[in-house]
Automatic annotation (TrEMBL):
<dbReference type="GO" id="GO:0043041">
    <property type="term" value="P:amino acid activation for nonribosomal peptide biosynthetic process"/>
</dbReference>
<dbReference type="InterPro" id="IPR000873">
    <property type="entry name" value="AMP-dep_synth/lig_dom"/>
</dbReference>
<dbReference type="GO" id="GO:0003824">
    <property type="term" value="F:catalytic activity"/>
</dbReference>
<keyword id="KW-0597">Phosphoprotein</keyword>
<dbReference type="InterPro" id="IPR042099">
    <property type="entry name" value="ANL_N_sf"/>
</dbReference>
<protein>
    <submittedName>
        <fullName>Aste57867_7009 protein</fullName>
    </submittedName>
</protein>
<dbReference type="Pfam" id="PF00668">
    <property type="entry name" value="Condensation"/>
</dbReference>
<dbReference type="InterPro" id="IPR009081">
    <property type="entry name" value="PP-bd_ACP"/>
</dbReference>
<dbReference type="GO" id="GO:0005737">
    <property type="term" value="C:cytoplasm"/>
</dbReference>
<dbReference type="InterPro" id="IPR001242">
    <property type="entry name" value="Condensation_dom"/>
</dbReference>
<dbReference type="Pfam" id="PF00501">
    <property type="entry name" value="AMP-binding"/>
</dbReference>
<dbReference type="InterPro" id="IPR045851">
    <property type="entry name" value="AMP-bd_C_sf"/>
</dbReference>
<dbReference type="Pfam" id="PF00550">
    <property type="entry name" value="PP-binding"/>
</dbReference>
<dbReference type="InterPro" id="IPR036736">
    <property type="entry name" value="ACP-like_sf"/>
</dbReference>
<dbReference type="GO" id="GO:0031177">
    <property type="term" value="F:phosphopantetheine binding"/>
</dbReference>
<keyword id="KW-0596">Phosphopantetheine</keyword>
<dbReference type="GO" id="GO:0044550">
    <property type="term" value="P:secondary metabolite biosynthetic process"/>
</dbReference>
Length: 655
């Protein structure tokens, strides 16, 4: 019992009732109660204590469920403060419709939220709490080193003595109230991430059914969330916590207890929790879908399946947008149908496994073109392109956009890959190997034409006009400039070419290809096929891009347009001042230097912490940048999609 509890009662004319063996019996007569939240959680329904009018809590974080249970029927005050500041430094009258906080400093006390260099942080930013004022002790008795490290000269006020470094992390809310987020000495490091255990427990306690909660690390590998009462659904609790914490701070193991162990002060006894004789393991996989899903994750991401449980997050085992596409393809191979978007949204294993029941069509209806379009192409383009056997498909919207840009500027959307050949390398074998790749994959035999109704792609069934070029240049850069200026245009028989370039004693093979024919995945597969062809291997059959075109054509365009018009209704564009340049105005061979202190590894780590992909993390960064320059809370920007995550069989493998 502290001085403020004794004199707070007696100096106000009240009777101080000391707790006996039966605390519940004493509660039937008192008007005011001072205890820790864990103790209050044991009292049950407030209606059992009709005389109780005032409840003051301190010593532990206050769970939201307790606040919502007691605040409507008593005057509920939440206090906090270390012993070094005379027990209490903050207090707050709790309201049902306001999140739990500790309020503002009591009279004659100051509180600062500072960074590691003792500078105030902005409102809403987490820092360490320093307490100053008349209640701060001058130091520890006979402990000069500890006193020097904890009691620091107050640079913000000369009215009192030193300020105390509390070791608590918190922030100032826009209302001016303070919110505690955990303690410095309660931080642990798990899988390379620094985790604040009190913050994890605090997020668990925000659940409306949780009375008490704690978090510990077991076996140096597992973050365990303890909660009471034990009948709360674990999956629901994990989803609740996942919405409030970065994915690396969400427990992978959950333990429900009817009553939390308490120490002599009535607080949660973490040593007793740690000593509980429990078999700490991941929740076992239950359904066939869960077991198949776990097997796929383990195989694709090269992790031990024993590390994957029902509550394991896709991101926690190394998932990102690229591996998501591979996981989706592998799931389809074992009879689990899920889209990339679904996997990224429902990234906890049991949730992902629960939505794999809707089958994906093996194929979408093939496109049927009008005789008018086919006749026009035969009449206008067959002779010019030397076409005999060919197939016509409409260009996808993405392809059409790129081709329209190329019609304005022939160098738009062209990629060049110069390969330096070894002196003894047989260039003829390279050309023949590449011809075999072109013959294997129809996208490389695709050209584009215009009609009155739009852009169409023509797939020719031969390579009779696919020639290789041989030229001499003073430098490879000079050739690349000329080749880029040549570009591609409507009427070209192919939108890909391979050129042998002789530069003095060096030889280069330069691949030039239009972006309408490839994405990043395509290049990887084509490279593997070219190497295999050079080695005399048979080329594997890969899904055709036609399946993607069929899928896009099968979609209801009017419904899609109506959705986006409705979704963006009322949005007013606020463009940044334009320089007059467009995305097609790229200047070849001029390096763009960007100075940044953030490495790719740091971006990946940050993305994993927040349970998003690196691509999504970068989009958020770009959105924040746009928000800063436009000064608008809503920003809109376009994104090119590669159509690898659409519900088309083997979409991850098409060329």
């Amino acid at each position: 019992m502290s001085q403020w509890e004794i004199w707070g009662a007696l100096s106000n004319g009240a009777t101080l009732v000391l707790r006996g063996e039966n605390a519940f019996e004493a509660l039937s007569t008192v008007d005011a109660l001072i205890c820790v939240p864990t103790g209050l959680g044991l009292l049950g329904d407030p209606s059992q204590y009709p005389k109780l009018k005032f409840v003051t809590l301190a010593g532990e974080p206050l769970p939201t469920s307790l606040k919502d249970l007691w605040a409507p029927v008593v005057q509920l005050t939440n206090c906090c403060g270390p012993s070094e500041t005379t027990i209490i430094s903050h207090s707050s009258l709790q309201q049902v419709d306001v999140n739990v906080n500790v309020g503002r400093p009591i009279p004659n006390m100051n509180c600062y939220v500072l960074d590691d260099k003792f500078r105030p942080v902005p409102i809403g930013v987490v820092g360490e709490l320093f307490v100053g004022g008349i209640g701060v002790s001058p130091g520890y008795v006979n402990l000069p080193d500890e006193t020097a490290s904890k009691f620091i000269s107050d640079p913000f006020s000369t009215a009192y003595g030193p300020m105390y470094r509390s070791g608590d992390f918190g922030r100032i809310l826009p209302s001016g109230d303070f919110e505690i987020r955990g303690r410095r000495d309660n931080q642990v490091k798990l899988r390379g991430y620094r985790i604040e255990l009190d913050e994890v427990a605090g997020a668990i306690m925000q659940h409306p059914q949780v009375i008490t909660a704690s978090a510990l690390v077991k076996d140096k590998t597992k973050l365990v969330g303890y909660f009471s009462p034990a009948n709360i659904n674990k999956e629901e609790l994990q989803e609740f916590v996942s919405a409030r914490l970065p994915i690396y701070m969400v427990p992978s193991v959950w333990v429900g207890l009817e009553v939390m162990p308490q120490n002599s002060n009535g607080k949660i006894d973490k040593k007793a929790l740690d000593a509980l004789d429990l078999e700490i393991d991941f929740d076992p996989l239950v359904t066939k879908s869960e077991k198949r899903m776990a097997s796929v994750w383990a195989h694709v991401m090269d992790v031990d399946i024993s590390e994957i449980g029902r509550c394991t997050s896709f991101f926690a085992v190394g998932g990102d947008s690229m591996t998501a596409i591979k996981v989706v393809a592998a799931c389809n191979a074992v009879g689990l149908t899920i889209t990339t978007a679904q996997l990224l949204k429902f990234h906890v294993l049991w949730r992902a496994a629960s939505i794999v029941s809707v089958p994906t069509p093996d194929a979408w209806p093939s496109i049927t073109l009008s005789e008018e379009v086919l006749g026009f192409i035969r009449d206008e383009w067959a002779v010019r392109l030397n076409l005999e056997n060919f197939v016509v498909y409409p260009a996808t919207p993405l392809q059409a956009g790129m081709i329209y840009a190329t019609m304005k500027r022939k160098h738009a959307y062209i990629m060049q890959v110069p390969l330096l050949l070894d002196p003894g390398f047989d260039s003829k074998s390279l050309f023949e190997a590449f011809r075999a790749v072109v013959e294997q994959h129809e996208i490389l035999r695709t050209t584009f034409v215009t009609t009155a109704t739009g852009i169409y792609q023509i797939i020719r069934n031969d390579t009779v006009d696919f020639f290789f070029h041989n030229t001499n240049e003073s430098t490879i850069e000079a050739f690349l400039d000329l080749d880029r200026a040549r570009g591609f245009e409507i009427g070209d028989k192919y939108f890909v070419r391979l050129t042998l370039v002789n530069v003095e004693t060096d030889r280069y093979a330069v691949l030039s290809i239009h972006h309408a024919l490839y994405d990043g995945w395509t290049l990887s597969m084509l490279t593997n096929d070219l190497v295999g062809s050079l080695q005399g291997k048979s080329l594997m059959a890969r899904p055709s891009f036609r399946g993607v075109v069929d899928y896009i054509d099968a979609q209801n365009k009017a419904t899609t347009e109506d959705f986006w018009r409705s979704y963006l209704s009322g949005y007013v564009s606020h463009p940044i001042a334009s320089t007059g340049l467009t995305t097609e105005d790229s200047r070849p061979h001029e390096p763009l230097e960007m100075c940044t202190q953030v490495s790719l590894a740091e971006i990946k780590a940050a993305a994993q912490r927040f349970g998003v992909t690196p691509a999504e993390f970068n989009k958020v960064a770009w959105a924040v940048t746009l928000q800063k320059y436009t000064r608008q809370s809503d920003v809109v920007f376009g994104q090119v999609m590669a159509n690898r995550d659409i519900p088309v069989k083997d979409a991850d493998g098409y060329v």
